[in-house]
Each structure stands twice: as C-alpha cells, then as structure tokens.
Amino acid sequence: MPIHPPRQRSTGSSERPGVQQAESALVEHYPRLVRLAYLVLPPSLGRHRRVLAAHAVVQRALPGVRSAPEAPALSRIPAQTRGAAHRPAPDSARSAYAWMRLRVLRAALAHERRPRWWPGQLPVPAALRPSLPAVWGLRLCPRAGGAGELALDQALSAVPGAVRAAFALRLLEDLDAPEAQSLLTGAGASDPAGAVRAAMLLEGADRAEAGELLRSGEFDPCVLQTRPGDLLRRRHRMRAVAAVAALCVVAGGLVALTEQGTPAPAPGGGGRSAFAPALDPAKLLRTAADEWADTSRIDFTAWPARGDRTDDRALLSRALRAWGRAPGGTAVSATPGTLAVPPAQPPQLLYAGEVDGAAVVLFHDRGVRVVRYAEPRAGSGAPAVDFARTDGADVTTGAALVVSRNGDRARFLMAPWISRTTTRDLLAPDSPARTLEVNADGVTAAVPRPSPGGRCDSWPVLQLRSSERIVENHAFLLTDLGDLAPVHLTFTPGPAVRAGARQPREATSTPALLAWARTACSLTALRGSGVRAVNNWNFAQQRLPESGTPAQWLCTRADTWQGPGRVLIQFLPPSSSPTGPGTVVGDERDTAQCSRFGQHVLAGTRWRAPSGDWYVLAAGSRAVSRIEATGAVRDSAAGRTLAVRAPRDAPVELTARLREGGSLTAVR
Hints:
- The chain is an alpha+beta fold.
- It has twelve helices and 27 strands.
- Strands 10, 11, 13, 14, 15, 16, 17, 18, 19 and 20 form a ten-stranded mixed beta sheet that branches.
C-alpha cells in the first residue's frame, strides 16, 4: 500500500514536458494511471472492455511529436513505494506526471461525452473509441473483492464520471477539494465543484476505509483474471462471418459484372462468367441416401436429393439460371438478412419434383442458404425464386422445408431423420396429434396454415419425432411463419424452489401446450421476419391482489437466423378458457433479454381487480430480490413480485434489484 509524501505543490513548468520525460512518468506510474482511468471510465462498458479501455487511455496519453502543448495541473505527485515517501521527486518529474495525469483524466472523461457532430439520441459506437490494446478469445477482469468492494462498485456505478474522477483524485491522489476541482476544470468536466461535493458525500464518515477499498484488487486493472469467452457463440459467429464474407465476395463480383454491362450467361456459356461453374447442373452436389445416419453433422448437408425430376437437366438449368440472374418477370423474395446472389460454389440439390401443379427445385448453398425455385407446369404464370438463411441449422431447425404453398394450405419436405410426422392445433391443447401422410419422396400431404389475417381460431403446427438411428428420438414442434424454414417452438418452465435456471425444452409437455395455447396468436406479429425459433419462458407467477388467484408472466422470445432477437412480455391472468389469450405488456427488438445471454427480466402492467380498483403489477425473474415503483405512486416489495393500487393512467416507473448486485428496468 503506497504512503503519500508530505503535502506540497508541484513546481513544474507550465510548458509540456519532453516526450522522454512523459514516457518516464507513464512507465513509472503506469499502474496508478491505469487504475485512475479504470475508475473514471463508464461502468456500462463492462469489466472486460473497461480494463482494455483503461490501458488504451493511458497508452494513448503519451504525446506525439506534434501534440499541442497543454498546461499541467499543479498538484502533488504520489509516491510509488513506501521507500519513496521520503524522497521528494524532482520538479521535472512532478510536472511530467501531472501533465500525463491530466491527459489521462481528460481522455477517460471523454468516454461519457458524445462528439459534437454525433446525434444526441444515438449511442456512440465502439468503433469511434480507441481499439488498442485488443484481446481475442479471452475475457479479462480484475480480481473480485468482498462485500465492501462490491458495495463501493455499485455506488460508483450510480454517479457520473466526473464524480468518480473526483472520488479517485481525493482518495488515490490525496488531493484536497480545491486541487481536485482545479484538475477537473482542466480536464473539461462540466461541473467540477458539484462533482467534488458529491465525491465528498460518497466518501462517507470513514474516508480511510473508502481509500483502502479503492486500492484493493477489485479496482486494479493491472492484476487480472482471465477466462475464455463464449466459445460456442464465437464458433457460430466465425462460421457466420465466413459465410457472409463468401456471399459478399460473390455479391461484389455480381456488381462488377453489372457495372460492366456484361450479362451473366446461362450455364455452359463458354466460361464467360465467374459463376458459370457453380451454375452448371452437372456439378450439383448430391448426398447419399443414408449419409444422415452416419454423420455427426445433422443439418441440411445430410439431406439426400429427392423427387422424380432430380435428373431433369433442363429444369435444373432453368432453376440455376434463375438463381444466377432471374429473368424479367421472375418473382424474387428473400428473408431478412439473406443475400439474393449467385452461389460461390456448386450448391447441393435437395429436391426436384412436381408439387401442386408446379415444378419445384430446392437447393442448399452448403451451410448458408436454402433457395427454392418454382415454375408453373401450365398457364402463363411467372416462375419464383425464394431465398432463406439456414446457417447453423440442427436436428430441429433443419427438419423441414416448405415445398409448396397453395392458398391456406402448405406442403413440407421432411428431413430424412424424421421417423414420425403428425399435426396438432396449439389452440386445442387437449386434442391428440393427428398422423400426417408423407410420400416416398418425403413430401407431406397438404396441411392448414395459420390464418394470415386477423382471425386466430386455430394454430396448426407440425409435431415431429426424430429417428432412433441418430440417438435423438424426441418429439418437437414446428410452425409455419411464412418463410421457407418452419419455426421451432420451445418452452422454459418457471424455476423450481431453490433450483437453478432451467433451459428451454421441447414444447410437447402439458404445461408447454397450455402455455402456447394462450400465446400462440402472438406469433402473428413475427410472420416473414426470418425467425428461427421461438421460446415461451414462464419466468414468474404472481398471486393477484384481493383474490389471491395465480397469474402467469411469460417472455416469448423469437430468435432470427441473423442473430438479433425480439421479446414479447405476456401477462396471463386467470381465464375460464384454456385458450384465453394473454396480454402483451412489453415488446422489445434487437435484445438479448430472455436468452442465455440475458437471463434477467422485469415487466409490469396495469390490472383491474373484480372490485373495480386498478393496480400496478410487476414481476421479475429468479434473480430479482426487490422491486420498486416510483412516479405517481411510490412503493417497493421484497421478492420477485409487486402489486400496488394506483390510478389507471398514473405514470409509474418500475425498477428491480438483483441478488448479485445491479438493477433492471422494466421491458416496455
């Protein structure tokens, strides 16, 4: 623990020090400067990014040859070691340290300020912040402290950066109030005097104890613990990046051809196009019929080529030509985030045959996309090409594809590992599943589609069972939301008493079917948005005021093939009907909430009791320890639920505290 030298002011010059002096000051006092930067930087960065940003701020503080001169703050220089406490530093060293400290402080405070030219309503992207040093594959964080350090960290997280800076200057740098205020003024803080006053209040009665906590390992970004990042997520991201990069290269080539006015030739056109090899039907990839049972990769790459026209070269040529460059009149559609560009390499043939009066061809772009081509057998109808992302598919999300839609009915092509195919209605949870006929090519009989209009009197789904040959042998649900790949439906039950968090499971159990019976109609809002899977999470149960009857809180999370998700918070009061719809009380897009990367959630709604009184109800997930209501009414409750009487239109803000520390705001 450093002991500070006697109080004395620096006698350094107002001119900036030389580069060598500044470098010497940075090297000698590097741990102290990094700790100061770490404390001032916004806690919202997270511990890993905050550590890296603190080191970047200090390293970038070293002046360049052409840096403009800046006046140093005249203040004391802390000693680095116990022995140094009795050796006053030379004036030049004091001046160099003071000058470097000012630059570090100014840069750290700038992280909470937007550039003047940046729109005030938008967060500043990380790309505009210093990017070095960088660490790949590891997560860095200081050593965890005790309860005192945790409480101090929470208190510092709740105040602005200028207050954290004043707090650190007084306790780490041993500056008095006027000196700290002067230094904050030189660093560009908006209200230095107010920041110093707030910091003095934050110190509390025992200033020495606060200083001890601030010097602990909890706030030392030079003594770090390392952990791996999310390896599975990184793996998926690298695959997605590689796939998107390949598609971008292809798209760039297509743009170049278009700009040169060179049409993309048909397959076999003498090699005039870079895409010609990939668009040659003779080079199509075909998987052996039984390969799915002898591979560990159970996705679309394991599908064999099926259908009665897989050897129809003319049909395959037309389909590939339409994919490479759709002729005029061809209807082209693509799910969000899917590039409608030619393949970079020969695609895999999944199906070619006749369905409902049309010739249909399905291709798989080797882990990236599924492409469907359809042309009418008779009449003057135009062909159609549909693109959909399927990267990262698995046993369930790669189990079926829409092969035909005709009015309010659809047919599906089943994966070869599906051993049993049935249908059921989510709005009839007590009805048994009904057998669905599948022909020798894997195409199902026509099944009803969920009504695309405002009516929601039924919600048909596929209930499939995988084969014992891949050691899965489990049932799961898929539903048609308008894309080529149907959507996988799952369910996460509420936490048991004294049990940990639960994982999503197949939505075939009685509690899952009952939950989906009351929330299925909310799936209408997700049509055509490239959704991969939807999970219903029963995150809380609440006893209603006056009656004591239980109500359920569900978070319906839709994950897209692109990655971003959307959550709908649904409140399910008691209902006389098992299909009584819930009320959507929150809707948030592009969020990690209700996923494995966002396991905490808080929601609220207004509810009218049978007596006619209105209440504000709130509920949180398993880690919530307290809920508070502010605004027109002020109340709080320990635990995961809150009910407070309030006027119907009274403005109320809801927040929650977590057991491990931190806070939540309600999903709106």
